[in-house]
Amino acid sequence: MISISNKIKQFLVLLIKIMIVGGAFYFIYNQLANNDKLDWQKFIILFHKNQSVFGIGFILLLSVLNRLFEILKWKYLVSYLRPITLGEATKQVLASLTAGLFTPNGVGEYAGKALYFDKKETKKIVFLNLICNGIQMILTVIFGIFGLLYFNSQYSVITSKTVVILFAGCFLLVGILFFSKKVNIKGYSIEKLIHKINEIPKSIHQKNTLLAILRYLVFSHQYYFLFLAFDVDLPYLILISAISSVYFLASSLPTFQFLDFAVKGSVAVYFFGKLGVNEWIVIFITTLMWFLNVVLPVLFGSYYVLNFRTKTAQKI
């Protein structure tokens, strides 16, 4: 009975692997092949006009750095529990990215990373992943607010009254959280969360923050350089403020990783439309960003998913 049970378990694991990888490839193909807003002919003409080995290499290097900084963040955070190699961190980050491709807001990423550790460490791994993603979100909000304010001062997207209301709402929310930090909900409270965060050494938090800043600068400027490659000639501050605004507003909307470019694309079309940038260029650049920073890592992550072995399987 035990051998049959193990065989069934192995079959189910294999089936889940195939479903994850197959689903990932299907969603990627479907979005690239059936998006009628992508004018491939215009792209090919512009590509032949501006093609540069150095330029292509530079854009690809930014994608590598973007994912490398994320892998290093995870490596240093996990070192709080036990040291892992760069190779192990790479495997866990890319495999979990693939697993979280078609889950809301990448929730599957949390479960994907937890599978590489013992069950007793699951809560700690989920918490560390929350810290890893949390600092990135905080930076996106901070840079995004400043970018939105600058962009708004130039193009009046929202009224001054709305800006005041938004800031008042933020201060009110912070005040409520501060005064209710001792309130327990099912054994959890903000005070306990802060205590848990403070248990992690400051050196790890500092590395995590620095790498998160570097990662933000990399992917936002990759977006910027792609606009330059598509002959969009706009002042640096205006362009970078629009980019930070797009990331800020898009990140606040619930979405799936495989629809990430569609959400960012719709927000980007509005902002860059204000700057007079052609819609097809905005859609193409957003899709390229998605391809370079999600699709390519998922292709590598699929290998790790297919070669994944559960802790139980490793012990048999």
Provide a concise account of the structure shown:
This protein is mostly helical and 316 residues long. It is built from 13 helices and no strands.
Q: Could you say how many structural domains there are in total?
A: 1
Helicity, as a percent range: over 70%
Tally of individual helices? 13
The major β-sheet equals: none
Could you explain how this protein is built, in words?
- The chain is mainly α.
- It has one domain (2-32, 55-315).
- Helix content is 78%, strand content 0%.
- It has 13 helices and no strands.
- It has helices spanning 2-33, 40-50, 53-78, 86-99, 107-114, 122-155, 160-179, 190-199, 202-229, 236-251, 260-274, 279-306, 311-315.
- The longest helix is centred in the middle third of the chain and has 34 residues, at 122-155.
- The relative contact order is 0.14.
What attributes does this structure have?
mainly alpha, disordered C terminus
Question: What secondary-structure arrangement, pairings included, does this model have?
Answer:
Elements: H1 2-33, H2 40-50, H3 53-78, H4 86-99, H5 107-114, H6 122-155, H7 160-179, H8 190-199, H9 202-229, H10 236-251, H11 260-274, H12 279-306, H13 311-315
Helix pairs in contact: 1-12, 3-4, 3-6, 3-9, 4-5, 4-12, 5-6, 6-9, 6-10, 9-10, 9-12, 10-11, 11-12
